[in-house]
Write a sequence for this structure.
């Protein structure tokens, strides 16, 4: 009797078919990680019904953004995101948040000379400043791709060290050095300031030095000190950044050049705007007597193209130091020889720091007759440079103090007067009247001038309006206190109005009686 083969159970058939599906999926998708994650959910999306393997009709539709459906009850966060429950979750309240791969607790490493940059759902690595990838790419994924190497800034075009600067490459950076005769500019560490040096024999009578956009011409006899047979030195230094500090300084003209607008004060021009056209240069020499040179020195300034308008004038100026530690631009000892659109030539009889200024104001010519009729006025007791504030506030505070004393005396007199009145008048009424009259006295005696002291800061405009309005009402307060609130004046006003009414009534009575007599006489005549 032959053996009968046992019939397989439905569960065994399901397992066998599931294995067949897995083998087909693995053979079609060589990527083992992705395939494993896909097949892992087959048991949840498949079922046995009537001995046949069937797929469920649908999966979870409530999965949040940045996640995928696993089965009807489970969702999985996308790569680079995670929920509070982990990668997979079953709660509808969960959300998938970005993983900060660059955080302190992260295992991600970009390697040396590199920084990690976190993105939405991922990250990337970049080389730090001064380094770059060997492939010239900008980003990479992990430490194994790190090829960050030092950038040689000295080979970049255009040159990073300007004006003949010497570049030295360092690890991740560079330095600029200047050759002899040049030095680094304070405002730009990559710029070398030019200093022109020239050695000449005694046979040469003229000296020409050139610096940054400036040329200086002088005679060698000016440089040599009297009785000195040794070497002589003359120098010219140009500092481009100095113009920003001195551009807004005041300008003082020589008396013979002070043809200023009518009404302007002579001397230092503080209300006239000026523009610095050139670099500020400083000249020096071994001759210690630099204030009275035997022959003038010529300076040729190069500047940007500019044509002065009808209300503009170009000046050759120098920086004049004052004893108080300050200074201003001055034209004394300097004159303009010629000027063009791009250059100006000046001659000076002393040495200092020089520049070219263009003043923005009209320069009318002044006749001698006008000077005699309108001499300059320079004395004013309200001088801003000589204690202007206290020259004004001193008298104001004195007047205010005297008026305040009168107010206190008035309050004392009113209090004594009210206390002697009949006891039928209430104390509250007396107090109110006393307070009102005392307040009115403040306006009458001019105590509101204290508002003038408060005209400072942001509230200056408000205080100015209050000062003007309240002081303009001073006459009204005098009428209010000494006329309307005075009992004697009110009684006199009452008598005056009663007299007017009485006179009017008598006039009307006289008119009526006259009319009656006229009517009676007419009737008698008719009869």
């Amino acid at each position: 009797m032959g053996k009968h083969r046992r019939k397989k159970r439905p569960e065994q058939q399901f397992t066998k078919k599931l294995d067949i599906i897995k083998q087909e999926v693995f053979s079609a998708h060589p990527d083992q990680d992705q395939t494993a994650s896909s097949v892992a959910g087959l048991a949840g999306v498949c079922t046995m019904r009537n001995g046949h393997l069937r797929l469920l009709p649908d999966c979870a539709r409530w999965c949040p953004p940045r996640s995928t459906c696993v089965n009807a009850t489970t969702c999985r966060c996308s790569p680079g995101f995670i929920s509070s429950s982990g990668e997979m979750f079953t709660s509808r309240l969960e959300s998938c948040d970005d993983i900060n791969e660059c955080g302190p607790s992260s295992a991600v490493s970009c390697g040396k000379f590199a920084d990690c940059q976190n993105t939405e759902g991922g990250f990337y690595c970049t080389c730090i400043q001064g380094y770059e990838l060997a492939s010239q790419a900008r980003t990479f994924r992990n430490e194994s791709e790190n090829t960050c190497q030092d950038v040689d800034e000295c080979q970049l075009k255009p040159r990073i060290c300007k004006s003949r600067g010497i570049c030295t490459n360092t690890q991740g950076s560079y330095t600029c050095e200047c050759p002899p005769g040049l030095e680094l500019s304070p405002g730009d560490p990559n710029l070398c300031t030019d200093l022109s040096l020239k050695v000449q024999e005694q046979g040469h009578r003229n000296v020409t030095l050139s610096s940054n956009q400036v040329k200086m011409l002088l005679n060698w006899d000016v440089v040599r000190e009297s009785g000195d047979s040794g070497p002589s030195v003359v120098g010219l230094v140009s500092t481009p950044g100095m113009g920003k500090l001195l551009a807004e300084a005041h300008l003082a003209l020589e008396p013979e050049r002070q043809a200023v607008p009518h009404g302007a004060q002579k001397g230092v021009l503080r209300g006239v705007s000026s523009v610095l056209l050139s670099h500020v240069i400083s000249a020096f020499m071994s001759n210690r007597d630099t204030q009275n040179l035997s022959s003038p020195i010529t300076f040729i300034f190069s500047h940007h193209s500019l044509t002065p308008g009808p209300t503009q004038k170009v000046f050759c100026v120098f920086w004049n130091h004052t004893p108080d530690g300050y200074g201003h631009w001055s034209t004394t000892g300097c004159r303009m020889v010629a000027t063009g659109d791009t250059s100006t030539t000046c001659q000076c009889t002393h040495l200092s720091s020089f520049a070219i200024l263009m003043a923005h104001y009209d320069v009318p010519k002044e006749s001698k007759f006008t000077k005699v009729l309108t001499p300059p006025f320079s004395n004013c007791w309200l001088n801003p440079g000589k204690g202007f504030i206290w020259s004004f506030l001193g008298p104001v505070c004195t007047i205010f103090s005297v008026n305040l004393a009168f107010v206190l005396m008035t309050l004392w007199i009113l209090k004594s007067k009210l206390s002697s009145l009949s006891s039928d008048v209430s104390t509250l009424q007396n107090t109110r009247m006393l307070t009102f009259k005392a307040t009115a006295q403040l306006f009458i005696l001019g105590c509101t001038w204290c508002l003038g002291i408060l005209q400072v800061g942001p509230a200056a405009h408000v205080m100015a309006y209050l000062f003007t309005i309240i002081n303009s009402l001073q006459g009204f307060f005098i009428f209010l206190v000494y006329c309307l609130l005075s009992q004697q004046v009110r009684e006199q006003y009452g008598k005056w109005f009663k007299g007017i009414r009485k006179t009017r009534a008598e006039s009307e009575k006289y008119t009526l009686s006259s009319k009656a007599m006229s009517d009676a006489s007419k009737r008698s005549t008719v009869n």
